[in-house]
Amino acid sequence: xxxxxxxxxxxxxxxxxxxxxxFRVGRARSKYAVxxxxxxxxxxxxxxxxxxxxxxxWLPLFLVSMWLFALYWSDAFAAAVGVVWIVGRILYMTGYxxxxxxxxxxxxxxxxxxxxxxxxxxGKLIWMAIQGAL
Amino acid sequence: xxxxxxxxxxxxxxxxxxxxxxFRVGRARSKYAVxxxxxxxxxxxxxxxxxxxxxxxWLPLFLVSMWLFALYWSDAFAAAVGVVWIVGRILYMTGYxxxxxxxxxxxxxxxxxxxxxxxxxxGKLIWMAIQGAL
Amino acid sequence: xxxxxxxxxxxxxxxxxxxxxxFRVGRARSKYAVxxxxxxxxxxxxxxxxxxxxxxxWLPLFLVSMWLFALYWSDAFAAAVGVVWIVGRILYMTGYxxxxxxxxxxxxxxxxxxxxxxxxxxGKLIWMAIQGAL
Lengths: 134, 134, 134
Known about the structure:
The structure is a homotrimer.
Chain A: H1 5-31, H2 43-72, H3 75-98, H4 104-133
Helix pairs in contact in A: 1-2, 1-3, 2-3, 2-4, 3-4
């Protein structure tokens, strides 16, 4: 498939999951009585809030690394690792919403997926820069 | 106009608005006596802080969706919807700064604009993937 | 060097620095006894937390502006200014971790670098739009 269509679809799927996390924060505001603009005061709310906030914190790492991997190396491999990231983030969301200790497995999965994309892209780019300089 | 110049200009205009929101947070720190690194303690400060933070939360949804829409479908339409997003965000900023309840109209406008871009791009990409697989 | 390899490498270097900042937040959680999901309660922790959060707040401004500058104007110049941004962010991290007042120099450097990229790209794009419309 041409034109990075796979990576683009995985990108929008990840953004949809991220949107769902934001929607859950809005719902948790009323459920746990934490009206805007407060973002703390109830631990159940704070866990739902942090699922969304932590995913935002990782989005630039994940999305930029996945696209650079796709652009400079392999579209299909980047998209496949991107699906692993989404699975990790779903486990992170369901675990962390239950209790803070249950966030580790999903977090590790998405972290490994991001590392593969970031260091894979970086290695390929440094290789290209060396080749170009010779 | 070639080369996605319109979408690029709308992108930088949105980032300038986002920069203004960040500048207002700095100013609100002194006005309401909330020195760094604190981010809470005064409701007037917290609303100004949340205008900026919520816009950051939506920036990946908006910018990535607008660019994918522009790259895979229509540059001019993506840029036009991007202008609607900016208008919604300005209303959100001025409303939320006044009171938490006055943030809804602007929020709805920017949310609809983002939805059009995200689901438009996703629909087009799934269509392309099906075409490619046939 | 072709294909924006320099800007891509600077992008990943900036993301690695941002990753280190996130890692320091996790370490500060145990050091200062601020367990998840809390993000406040200890000023030493809060400064380490805000180093990471403020950098996240600036990443879209910096990365998008650098890439638009590289795509529409000069790859090498964008990458060079990107290195200045990274240096400013390192000074910001080490300063702010020590005390809130020591964050200003690094913050100013990365802010100037971002401004050069944002207004440089915007100026070039508006010029292109005018040329295209004539």
